[in-house]
Amino acid sequence: MRDLLDHIAAKWTTLVLLALEQEPRRFNTLLRMLPDISRRMLTQSLRDLERGGFIDRTVFPTKPPAVQYALTPMGHSLMGPIRSLIGWAEANETALNAARARYDAAQA
């Protein structure tokens, strides 16, 4: 359980999954969609997601080879809980910001 939660909670995992939610995408498209991620980190995140069974990597026999990433059925099933968490964060944004401000003021 902890391994799964560590994997899902990794910095880029959720953003990569969200980028793939609507349709399969190629590496450079993902790189453009996530401008703060490095090529190396995107590569590692995609490998980790593929290893975990959340995405599929398809190589097309073109010159040069085209590679596309897509959510697997398990990846799609994870999007419901992720969307719920995003909804919770949006609904509680004001309270979260107020709690941080109170904490920061107490530390000063």
UniProtKB/TrEMBL annotation:
Span of the signal peptide: none
Superkingdom of the organism of origin: Bacteria
Pfam families: HxlR
PROSITE patterns on file: HTH_HXLR
Keywords: DNA-binding, Transcription, Transcription regulation
Record has Transcription as a keyword: yes
HTH hxlR-type domain residues: 1-97
InterPro entries tied to this protein: HTH_HxlR (IPR002577), WH-like_DNA-bd_sf (IPR036388), WH_DNA-bd_sf (IPR036390)
Coiled-coil segments on the chain, per record: none
SUPFAM superfamilies per record: Winged helix' DNA-binding domain
Name listed for the protein in its UniProt record: Winged helix-turn-helix transcriptional regulator
Protein species of origin: Sulfitobacter porphyrae
